[in-house]
TrEMBL record:
Keywords: Carbohydrate metabolism, Cytoplasm, Isomerase, Rhamnose metabolism. It holds the Pfam family rhaM. SUPFAM superfamilies: Dimeric alpha+beta barrel (SSF54909). It comes from Emticicia aquatilis. This is L-rhamnose mutarotase. Its EC number is 5.1.3.32. The keyword rRNA-binding does not apply. The gene is rhaM. The keyword Membrane does not apply. GO terms for biological process: rhamnose catabolic process.
Length: 104
């Protein structure tokens, strides 16, 4: 099992909208993540900086790395691009974080 962490940046004043959209996560996107062996996925918000911090577990990195190529993922990115920092292809600007401690 691989444990991954990352950070992204939410636009100021968009926390409620971000939460609302995730509370209504498209079932087909949830299935894309499950098919890519993603589990134990959480996203936290630092309200002072608007930094989103995500953690997740992945069994198969090869399947996980296919998520960006899925058309459902690309639709989700386009849906979210107006409320967070995004790349030209609408993918979120995301920085992988280094794992420095874990207590099981």
């Amino acid at each position: 099992m691989h444990r991954l962490g990352f950070k992204m940046k939410l636009h100021a004043g968009k926390a409620e909208e971000y939460k609302r959209r995730h509370d209504e996560l498209w079932p087909e996107l949830g299935q894309v993540l499950k098919d890519a062996t993603v589990s134990d996925y959480s996203i936290f918000l630092d309200e002072e900086t608007n930094i989103l911090f995500g953690t997740l577990k992945v069994e198969d990195l090869e399947k996980f790395n296919q998520i960006p190529h899925n058309p459902i993922t690309k639709r989700w990115w386009a849906y979210m691009a107006d409320i967070m920092d995004a790349n030209p292809d609408n993918s979120p600007v995301s920085v992988d974080l280094k794992d420095v401690f874990y207590l099981a």
